[in-house]
Design a protein that fits this description.
Length: about 550
């Protein structure tokens, strides 16, 4: 099933190239992401998955004059930071070069109130995120964040006055502009712009065989532009070669160019998306994901794809720009695995003195949980982290007996955020160390026009799982693995597995399967799999509904 509304499909309907070495262009989004979403007006009450932006901030940035200034400042800073790339000022300037959308998102804007005698201290933490989104597929290829915390002190009687409200909004405005410049400055040296050339070395049916693979920087799902103006998409990549399909008619090119701003080539890794983030006190789901990814790093055996879903509801381009939509398969067809993150309510209380400390102290307790789930409901792996921080007692414990002791906080003005960052990055590292995927290769034992039989692979296969059927062909003295069918497991036991053939991957042809073809997929190692954990039916239905959004 094709879905279009969940991903940004911003491909200009012109595929002809003026030159084979076209540079990239960056288009600044027309709106600040999250400003068109609900805000939190009650600072004392929370509900599950509540807004992470308070209404005072939204009102501060919503003035037409302020919005215009922010847009101008953002464009100016982008031009200064990315001087080697082309910043597109209007839709009419967009041409056929690879296009990336730059957008600012407010992922946290909060008000924390602390009463001190006759005065009130108002802490205003603000976190912005800068994203670069590949316009051809909606994937976020780069993101970074910057945070700033300001404090203002007012008389207790003036807390709800118009003057205090105006002061809060002015503080947010100033902080927002400073963070915008800071984000563009720190992002410039971190971007990894690549230009990789590859050549066609053979063809089988509709498949184009390229002389570069993973070792040469060409990965699965990469889109390459040909010297004659045509395009191809990589559907399978090995260290030595890649297999691609044409995206345009009458493929004439024999040399192709990849331009990319990705941090790494993760085309060989299985994609495990974060589809569910449960919060209870207005924490930003986007920020939670970023903290988890900080600990996961690029060294994990899987990759967590990020798609800029929010861009669909913003005014990215004018209506007069012709756009085409590239079809996408539902995420559950990419992988049967997903990640769920849960933040328990933050607990802040006074603890009386005892054996280890004489005076009473302020204690803060935070607990987070991460789970990797299979669509069948099985919990593949889970880990939790709990931090208990006090003035004179610090301790951290998590699954697998890992422990961190918090000796000193870098930002005492925003203790909760720092503890949250510590806990989630710890969970990410735990997943990196303990969840290991490997490639499973099974030979087809028997086949029919509709089904194939393969050996049982134990818990690596499950009913409903999506797999691919490959065939090996000799092309220019090279044994090339070609993906010929998408299939779904319909029966699975300890002796054998039956898979239904769903879709031929050879354009314009239906190639019959045969014994000797192979099924290949990635699966977590047996040591990573939890033995009997299964989520209940209600949670499973919620998970499936999130995948279909």
């Amino acid at each position: 099933m094709h879905i279009q509304k969940k991903f940004l499909c911003l491909v200009i309907a012109l595929y002809s190239l003026k030159t084979a070495h076209a540079e990239i262009q960056i288009f600044p989004a027309r709106e600040i992401i999250s400003m068109n979403q609900a805000c939190r007006s009650n600072l004392k009450e929370y509900k599950m998955n509540d807004a992470s932006v308070v209404c005072d901030f939204k009102q501060a940035i919503s003035f037409d004059e302020t919005q215009k200034k922010v847009e101008e400042v953002f464009r100016t800073y982008l031009k200064q930071a990315f001087i080697q790339h082309r910043i597109v000022d209007s839709e009419n300037e967009i041409d056929n070069a690879p296009t990336y959308v730059a957008d600012l998102e407010v992922i946290r804007a909060d008000e924390l109130i602390s009463r001190k005698n006759k005065e009130v201290e108002i802490t205003l933490p603000l976190t912005l995120s800068l994203k670069l989104t590949d316009a051809s597929n909606g994937e976020v290829v780069y993101r970074n964040r910057a945070a700033q915390t300001n404090k203002i002190v007012v008389d207790a009687e003036a807390l709800n006055s118009l003057e205090t409200k105006k002061l809060i909004q002015q503080t947010f405005q100033t902080s927002f502009l400073k963070l915008t410049k800071s984000l563009t400055d720190i992002s410039r040296p971190q971007l990894n712009y690549q230009k990789i050339e590859t050549s066609k070395i053979g063809q089988w049916k509709s498949f184009v065989i390229l002389d570069r693979g993973l070792e040469g920087g060409i990965g699965t799902e990469d889109e390459l532009r040909g010297s004659q103006g045509d395009m191809i998409r990589v559907v399978h990549s090995t260290p030595q070669y890649a297999v691609a399909i044409p995206l345009t008619r009458d493929l004439k090119s024999t040399s192709f160019l990849k331009t990319s701003m990705k941090k790494e080539n993760s085309g060989h890794k299985i994609k495990v998306p974060i589809v569910d983030v449960l919060t209870y006190q207005g924490e930003s789901a986007d920020l939670v994901e970023q903290y988890f990814n900080d600990g996961l790093t690029d060294q994990a055996s899987f990759t967590v794809p990020k798609y800029n879903k929010q861009l669909n509801s913003t005014r990215l381009v004018a209506k007069n720009v012709s756009l085409v939509s590239k079809p996408y398969t539902q995420m559950d067809e990419f992988t049967p695995y997903s990640i769920r993150l849960t933040l328990m309510p933050f607990n802040d209380y006074e603890q009386e003195g005892g054996m280890f400390f004489k005076k009473s102290q302020r204690v803060m307790h935070l607990e987070v949980l991460a789970e990797m789930l299979h669509h069948s409901g099985q919990v593949i792996y889970s880990s939790n982290a709990a931090i208990k921080y006090g003035n004179s007692m610090n301790s951290h414990h998590s699954a697998h007996r890992n422990e961190i002791r918090v000796v000193k906080l870098n930002n005492s003005d925003d203790v909760k955020d720092e503890l949250l960052q510590l806990a989630l990055s710890k969970l990410g590292k735990d997943f990196k160390d303990h969840v290991n995927f490997k490639e499973i290769d099974l030979a087809v034992l028997a086949s029919s026009p509709r089904n194939i039989m393969i050996p049982s692979a134990g818990r690596h296969l499950a009913k409903g799982m999506k797999i691919k059927v490959f065939r090996t062909e000799k092309i220019n003295d090279l044994d090339v693995m070609l993906p010929i069918w998408n299939a779904t497991v319909v029966e699975h036991n300890s002796q054998f597995t039956i898979a239904r053939l769903d879709q031929s991957l050879v354009l314009g042809e239906v190639i019959p399967t045969r014994p000797g073809d192979h099924v290949r997929f990635q699966s977590p190692l047996r040591d990573s799999i939890s033995s009997v954990q299964v989520i209940d039916k209600a949670q499973l239905n919620r998970l499936k509904s999130l995948f279909k959004q």
